[in-house]
Design goal:
- The protein is of the alpha/beta class.
- It has one domain: 3-Layer(aba) Sandwich (Oxidized Rhodanese, domain 1).
- It has four helices and six strands.
C-alpha cells in the first residue's frame, strides 16, 4: 500500500470506491491512493482561486512534496485537470500516471482496493 498523498485519484468518489465502473472490467482504486475528484477544483466552470486550492491540496500531499506526487484518473484525462489545479495553486512538479485506472486494472496481478 502507498503512503497517503503519493497517489491522488481524480475520479468521482463512486468510481474510486468501486461502487460503479462504466468503462473498465474491474472497479475500485489503487491501494493507498487518495481520492480528490477533479471537479472539486472548479467553481462555475473555472478554477477556484489559487490560495483556496493550495490550502486544500497541500494537506493531501501528506509528507510528500509536489514533485513526489502522482495524479491519476480513469484514463489520464481528468488527472490532467487535477495536475493543472496543482499548478494553478503554485504546487509545481506533480506528475500524471497516464495509464491511470484503465492501465492498472488491466493487469490481474495488481492489487485493487474498494471502499
Amino acid at each position: 500500500e502507498l503512503a497517503p498523498g503519493w497517489l491522488l485519484d481524480a475520479r468521482a468518489a463512486e468510481r474510486y470506491r468501486g461502487d460503479v465502473e462504466p468503462l473498465d472490467r474491474v472497479a475500485g482504486h489503487v491501494p493507498g491512493a487518495v481520492n480528490r475528484p477533479f471537479g472539486m477544483s472548479l467553481r462555475d466552470g473555472r478554477f477556484r482561486p489559487a490560495q483556496e486550492l493550495r490550502a486544500e491540496l497541500l494537506p493531501l500531499l501528506g509528507a510528500h512534496t509536489p514533485d513526489q506526487a502522482v495524479v491519476m484518473c480513469g484514463s489520464g484525462v481528468t488527472a490532467c485537470h487535477l495536475l493543472l489545479g496543482f499548478e494553478h495553486a503554485g504546487l509545481h512538479g506533480v506528475k500524471v500516471f497516464a495509464d491511470s485506472w484503465s492501465g492498472w486494472s488491466s493487469d490481474p496481478q495488481r492489487p485493487v482496493a474498494t471502499g
